[in-house]
Design a protein that fits this description.
By secondary structure, the chain is mainly α. 71% of the residues lie in helices and 0% in strands. The protein is globular, with a radius of gyration of 20 Å.
Length: 266
């Protein structure tokens, strides 16, 4: 089992290497795209900035606290989009009949789809998230402890798993629609937009949806309360890891789609 896992990681590393070398063949395009990714997210940052120029706080959250919240959410999304971009591009793979080749290869389908696209240009978006995160830390009144640092790490792990699961759902739906449902953008790109503020400000009903259906609150709102000392229970440190369980129904939907897959005939 260890040998299989090790071989799988080596193969994925080989896929990533191929993608990176391919992008580096056009360095100017890579740099410009990366800058574009930085500027796209910068627009959202400006929205937050101008909001707080007019209002001192939003539902009791200060400018630096909102930036801290948004930067972590943006990092989660950027990491997931960087390595799980293959799921986002999966509709084209099905249309062109490329998934037929994936099915006959003696390797896991998910590993091959993940390796089909590695979007290194998302580093631009990640860079902005890191800058906002550093600014949020420097200007907030958070007293950092080991448990709070661990909380942030768990938020990144759980959030990356959550967005990966959403990309996996998008890919699974392509088995039945050929074109992925644009509705899924509400849960991926949309979450990046409304995730700039703590989920709790949107009301009790939205908080329930974001806790029990699509668990954004587990990787954003609840651990943020712990970072801001609004909650003191150590349980809040580990809450983000519960979002990893979201991968189970996502994977089940994927397997259901694979079992019912019929070639596009391309």
């Amino acid at each position: 089992m260890k040998t299989v896992r090790k071989n799988g990681l080596r193969l994925y590393g080989h896929y990533v290497s191929i993608n990176v070398r391919s992008m580096m063949q056009y360095k100017s395009s890579f740099v410009l795209t990366m800058i574009g990714q930085f500027l796209v997210s910068f627009n959202v940052f400006l929205g937050i900035y101008f909001m707080f120029q007019r209002f001192p706080s939003v539902k009791g959250y200060s400018y630096s606290e909102v930036l801290l919240c948004f930067s972590i959410m943006l990092m989660e999304f950027s990491i997931a989009e960087c390595y799980a971009r293959g799921f986002d591009m999966f509709a084209g793979m099905v249309k062109r009949g490329e998934f037929d080749r994936v099915m006959v290869r003696p390797r896991n389908e998910i590993l091959q789809v993940l390796g089909s696209k590695f979007e290194l240009t998302r580093i631009g978006r990640m860079l902005q998230a890191v800058c906002m995160f550093i600014y949020g830390i420097a200007n907030s009144d958070i007293h950092w402890t080991i448990s709070k640092i661990v909380t942030v790490v768990f938020m990144l792990l759980g959030g990356t798993a959550l967005f990966t699961g959403l990309f996996l759902i998008y890919a699974a739906l392509c088995f039945f629609t050929l074109d992925g449902l644009e509705l899924m953008n509400i849960f991926t790109d949309g979450a990046r937009e409304y995730g700039k503020y703590p989920v709790g400000i949107y009301g009790k009903r939205m908080l329930q949806i974001c806790t029990f259906i699509v668990p954004y609150a587990l990787v954003q709102y609840y651990p943020l309360l712990y970072l801001l000392d609004e909650r003191t229970s150590v349980i809040y440190v580990f809450i983000p890891l519960l979002a990893i369980l979201f991968l189970i129904p996502c994977y089940a939907l994927w397997r259901f789609g694979v079992r019912h897959y019929k070639s596009s005939g391309s």
